[in-house]
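[recover] target loaded
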């Protein structure tokens, strides 16, 4: 999607909200945060992919910049909002299938609709759709590309392992 498309879509929907694009430079590249008067409207990933080699540095991700930032959830359906709300409660380092997420959100049997909701998620990281995988195996798809999805999953797994290890060490 070209950068100007979101502005046109906003105008077409009658919201007339101005989207401000804020580049965030990181060691992984430049992320673009699109911010409306209501909050964070969209997160765009760098075009280049992160290095996925074992032992590579996993820092530089702008998730800490998003803490306390309010999401602009305008334009999402009630179904999508419920699915996204449920997904935001899934802890980092945890994965689940589209069907499991559908059931947790109160829509058993709606795995395909959940997949569509994940595809329409314009707030990756804040709504962590990378944690949702197909029941058949594999990664499924990701708006920023599957290499980013794999990188995010590996990063969260590493952080979860460190947190668990640290907690165990503190126990007598």
């Amino acid at each position: 999607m070209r950068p100007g498309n979101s502005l046109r879509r906003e105008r077409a929907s009658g919201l007339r909200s101005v989207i401000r694009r804020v580049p965030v430079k990181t060691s992984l590249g430049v992320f673009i945060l699109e911010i409306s008067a209501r909050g964070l409207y969209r997160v765009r990933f760098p075009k280049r992919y992160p290095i996925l080699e074992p032992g590579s540095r996993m820092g530089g991700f702008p998730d800490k910049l998003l803490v306390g930032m309010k999401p602009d959830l305008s334009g999402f359906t009630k179904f999508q909002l419920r699915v996204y709300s449920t997904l935001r409660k899934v802890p980092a380092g945890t994965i689940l299938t589209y069907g499991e997420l559908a059931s947790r959100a109160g829509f058993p049997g709606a795995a395909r609709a959940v997949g569509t909701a994940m595809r329409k998620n314009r707030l990756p990281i804040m709504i962590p759709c990378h944690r949702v995988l197909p029941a058949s195996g594999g990664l499924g798809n990701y708006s920023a590309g599957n290499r980013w999805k794999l990188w995010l999953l590996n990063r969260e797994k590493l952080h979860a392992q460190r947190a668990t290890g640290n907690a165990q060490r503190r126990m007598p």
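[recover] notes: Residues 5-170 form a domain with the Arc Repressor Mutant, subunit A fold (CATH 1.10.10.10).
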